[in-house]
Amino acid sequence: MDIAFADGAAMRVVQGREIRREKGAALIVVLGLVAVIAGWAATAAYEDMLSLRRVENSLASSKAELACLSALALMQQALKQDAKDNATDSLDDVWAIQAPPFPVDDGLVSGEVRDVNRFFNVNDLVDIKGKAVPAMVLFAKRLFRNRGVDESLVDALVDWQDSDSIPYGSGGAEDSSYLAKDYRVKNAPLDRWDELRMVQGFDVDVLKALKGVAIVWPVYAGRNLHVNVNTVEKNVWLSMFANMTDVDVDELLNNRPYKDTASFSTLVWAQGVEAQTMLPRLGVVSDGFMVRTHAIFGRADRREGYGLKRDGEMVSLLWRERQW
Questions:
Q1: Would you kindly state where each structural domain of the chain is located, as residue ranges?
Q2: Which fold has domain 125-211?
Q3: 125 and 306 Cβ atoms separated by less than 8 Å
Q4: What CATH number labels 1-119+213-225+287-324?
Q5: Whose CA is closest to 123, among 138, 110, 109, 140?
Q6: pTM
Q7: pLDDT tens digits for the chain (324 residues)?
Q8: Which of 39, 207, 266, 276 is spaced 20 to 30 A from 296 at the CA atom?
C-alpha cells in the first residue's frame, strides 16, 4: 500500500508539472498573439494617421489653390472696373494699392497687382521683322549701365532675338558663341524671365540687377508695350533719354498723375531728337499686369503668379505659374 501510494503521488506530481508546462506554453502563445495584435494595431493606427494627414494636407492644398484663384478673379474684376471708371492708370488706382492679407475660413490670402508698363520690355529690342530697333538698344544700354551691368550684354540680347546670323555690335553673340552649350540662339522673342539665363553673359547677378526695371513680355500683333509715365520707375525714366537728369525726372514724377500725353510731352520734347522716337512709346494707360497671390491653409503654403492682358474692359489670362 505504501508503494502504491508513493507511485500515485509521483504520478500526480508529474501530471501537475505537465499541466503547468501546458499552461506556460499557452500563456506564451497568448502573449505572442497579444504582441502581434498590438503591433498590428499600432501599425494600423499609424497608417490611419498618415492617411488622415494626407487627406488633411490635400484638402488644405486644394483650399489654398482655390483661394489663389479667387484672389485672381477678384483682381481681374478690379481691373475691369478700373477700365470702366478711369481713362488713365496710376499708382493711386485701387488695383495699385496692396492690401494686407485677409482671413478666409481657417486661412490667410493676399495678393498684389503691378502693371508691367512701368518696366523696360527686353522684347522691344527687336521689331516684328526681326531687326534691331536702334532707339530701344540705346535705351537698354543706358538702363544696363545705370544698374551697373555691362551694356555690351544688350548686343548679345539682340542677337538672341534677331533673325540674322551677324553679331550685333561689339558684344554680339550668335551661334558660334554657344558651341559649348547644347543649344543655339533662339532668333525669336523671349517667353519667360528665366530664359535670360540662356543668353550669353547673363548670370544670376545680372538678372538680380535688372529685376525691378526690366521685364519679359510678349509683343502682340506688332504692338510694343508702351511705358506708362504714371507708373514708370525712376531708373527707367533716367535711361530713356541721353540728356535726362535727376532734376528732369523728379519734375516728371512730382507732376504725376498725367491725364494725357499732352500733359508731359513738353518736358519730353526738351530732351531733343530722341523725343521723336520715344514719345510715341509713352502713354498714361497700362495694358499688361502681373498678379501674385499667396494663400496659407494649415500646412499648405501656396504662391502663384499670373500674367494678365487688358484690352479696354476685357482682361485675359496670358500665363499662370507656380512660384516658390
A1: 1-119+213-225+287-324, 125-211
A2: Ribonucleotide Reductase Protein R1; domain 1 (1.10.40)
A3: no
A4: 3.30.1300.30
A5: 140
A6: 0.79
A7: 555 555 555 555 555 555 556 666 666 766 667 766 766 666 766 666 666 667 777 888 888 999 999 999 999 999 999 999 999 999 999 999 888 888 888 889 999 999 999 999 999 999 989 999 999 999 999 999 999 999 999 999 999 999 999 999 999 999 999 999 999 999 999 999 999 999 999 999 999 999 999 999 988 755 667 899 999 989 998 898 888 888 888 988 999 999 998 888 887 777 777 777 888 889 999 999 999 999 999 888 999 999 999 998 999 999 899 887
A8: 207
Q: 189: which 3 cell numbers? A: 522673342
